[in-house]
User: Which sequence fits this backbone?
């Protein structure tokens, strides 16, 4: 007759000496890294292709943008161009086309350029930003990185 030992369900039975032991898990980020991720998530705005097309139309449409809104338009176009550039370069599994890389590189100095105080120069900057953003959004739609507005 063999002896059987009953172990209550909540007791911890140590593994035998020859059993595999997994290494202790360590979190991938420390507290500061987690705070950084949280801030980035809080500040993230989803990509809105319709808003991009609205701002492109305001910058390079039939009428120049109004004086009062030109500065805000330039800022929004910079943001759109940044988001489009990030989309183009984001996934290493799907590398950007040569044209995408060229447009991203063309947009960097435009995004960094100071907004002119002069209205005509501000409209010029808005239009240059819009032309690069327009070409990049078309390239991304053609490559199926993003979908066109419905």
Assistant:
């Amino acid at each position: 007759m063999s002896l059987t030992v009953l172990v209550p369900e909540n007791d911890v039975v140590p593994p035998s000496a020859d059993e595999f032991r997994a290494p202790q898990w360590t979190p991938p980020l420390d507290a500061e890294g987690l705070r950084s991720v949280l801030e980035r998530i809080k500040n993230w705005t989803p990509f809105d292709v319709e808003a991009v097309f609205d701002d492109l139309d305001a910058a390079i449409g039939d009428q120049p943008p109004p004086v009062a809104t030109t500065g805000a338009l330039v800022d929004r176009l910079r943001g759109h161009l940044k988001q489009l550039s990030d989309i183009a370069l984001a996934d290493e599994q799907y590398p950007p086309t040569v044209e995408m890389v060229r447009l991203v590189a063309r947009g960097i100095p435009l995004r960094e350029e100071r907004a002119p105080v002069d209205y005509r120069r501000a409209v010029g900057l808005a239009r240059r930003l819009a032309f690069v953003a327009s070409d990049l959004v078309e390239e991304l739609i053609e490559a199926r990185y993003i979908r066109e507005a419905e």
